[in-house]
Amino acid sequence: MTTVLAINGPNLNHLGARDPALYGDKTLDEINGMVAARAEALGLAPVFFQSNSEGALVDFIQSHPEAAGIVINPGALTHYGYSLREALADAALPTIEVHLSHIHAREEWRRVSVIAPVCRAQIGGVGWRGYLYALEALAEMLKEQGR
């Protein structure tokens, strides 16, 4: 099976309780369970990680050279996580950025992603389904690369 990283940034450990009207009522564990099931069907082996610390996210990416791709919800680091951006760029893997909410329809400061330029795609505004869409797109990208 092909290893892919499923990374979640700050505050996503509070999903299910954190503003359900905006972020939905599913917990991160529930979302990860759905991702794991879909990944298995796609022949992918996800390695899950969540941290509220940018440095821990960078360390995680750097410690998985075997990974073939990344699905990441950087949370608030979307807007200012330059060391995370550099780690993703250095990894040089197909990466898809995911957001539960539609960041371009929210406050102006949320509309800019410093992460997006080093990603193949950005999916947002479709709630937990965005993780599954990202995983499916990543699987297709890897298949096109022969991985």
Structural description of this entry:
The chain has one domain: Rossmann fold, CATH 3.40.50. 37% of the residues lie in helices and 19% in strands. It contains five helices and five strands. The chain has helices at residues 20-23, 28-42, 54-62, 82-91, 129-144; strands at residues 2-8, 44-50, 69-73, 95-99, 121-124. Helix 4 links the parallel strand 3 (69-73) and strand 4 (95-99). Helix 2 packs parallel to helix 5 (129-144) and helix 3 packs parallel to helix 4 (82-91).
What is the CATH class name? Alpha Beta
The percent range for strand residues is: 15-25%
Fold-level CATH name: Rossmann fold
- Strand neighbour order, sheet with most strands: 2-1-3-4-5
Low-pLDDT sequence parts: none
| DSSP summary: helix tally | 5
Architecture per CATH nomenclature, i.e. the level-2 architecture: 3-Layer(aba) Sandwich
Number of E-state strands: 5
Q: Bin the helical content.
A: 25-40%
Q: SSE string, helix = H, strand = E?
A: EHHEHEHEEH
Distance between the termini: 10 Å
Mean pLDDT: 95
- Using only CA atoms, what is the Rg? 14 Å
Output the structural class.
alpha/beta
| Apparent shape | globular
CATH H-level superfamily title: Dehydroquinase, class II
Number of domains: 1
Reported for the largest beta sheet, the result is:
5 strands, parallel
